[in-house]
Amino acid sequence: MEECHLPITRHEMVRRQLRARGIVDPRVLNAMEKIPRERFVPPDSMDQAYADRALCIGCEQTISQPYIVALMTEALELDGGETVLEIGTGSGYQTAILAELAREVFSIERLAPLAEQSRKTLDELDYHNVTIRVGDGTLGWPERAPFARIIVTAMAAECPPALFAQLAEGGILVIPLGERESQTLEAIRKVEGRKHSTSIAGCRFVPLIGEQGWPP
User: Fold this and answer.
1) From residue 41, how far is each of 82, 126, 141, 183, 205 by CA, in Å?
2) Is 197 an annotated catalytic residue?
3) Which pTM was predicted?
4) Residue span of the structural domain in which 75 resides
């Protein structure tokens, strides 16, 4: 996949923002070196596609900065055989990373325009192991459960019970938890049906809206 001329190249993004800040999983680094992030941002933000910051993608939503995408993905510990549930498709960039690294991805987006645009972009880039639907992500996708991995790309005050219930035994759920202004990225592993959490880093995400999240 070729990238257009940009102020910061994909290779520089991986070298300066990911490797230099401690991302070491070679599969994650290779996926982020491969995928053209500029295809997932609005045209007026294309020159900032590889900048070290979040960007607006419309509908009051954002695409996370590359480092946070890499950090969350690395925390999932993917080996290629997993079925992954993603809550918050957004631009579809994180979805594409997951599609590179997992067997199958199910992604839920609350906002239909974003779901439609991300599906179009993923189809154009030949990612066909992804199923996207519009709905309340806080309730998960029970008919496809259990999931080996779950990633939530919006912040919640606490882990939605429906999502933890749909996590397979031994699985990992990555989610930002906290208050609206400040959160901590957590990796939650299910061990004998109980939560075992590891704090990864401070972060700031848009709210997770839904029945088991924040009100609209």
Assistant:
1) 27, 18, 27, 24, 17
2) no
3) 0.95
4) 10-203
